Amino acid sequence: MNAEQPHLEVVRGNPDDVELAALVAAVALVTAAPERPEPPRRTSAWADRSRQTRGPLPHGPAAWRWSLA
């Protein structure tokens, strides 16, 4: 594009200066917005190492019996 050519062109209607300024500001905001970061990847349940750890042992009277299960 040439420097003399407009980047935006109104094809229908007759916007006033305020409406045109709002349009230019909105387009500038959208084009200048940073890209959204990718969502964190979920780890497979097979690769989750926390599954290998043992949970808390029961406590209380006769808890030793349940700890062997």
* Largest β-sheet summary: none
Going by helix content, strand content and strand pairing, the class is mainly alpha
Shape category: rod-shaped
Query: Could you give the count of β-strands?
Result: 0
Mean pLDDT: 80
CA radius of gyration: 31 Å
Count of alpha/pi helices: 2
Note the beta-strand portion.
Answer: under 5%
Proportion of residues in helical segments = 25-40%
Instruction: Note the run of SSEs as H and E.
Output: HH
Beginning-to-end CA distance, first to last residue = 75 Å
Low-confidence stretches: none
Overview of the molecule:
InterPro entries: ACC_epsilon (IPR032716). Pfam families: ACC_epsilon (PF13822). It comes from Saccharothrix coeruleofusca. The protein has 2 helices and no strands. The radius of gyration is 31 Å and the shape is rod-shaped. It has helices spanning 17-32, 63-67. The protein has 69 residues and is mainly α.
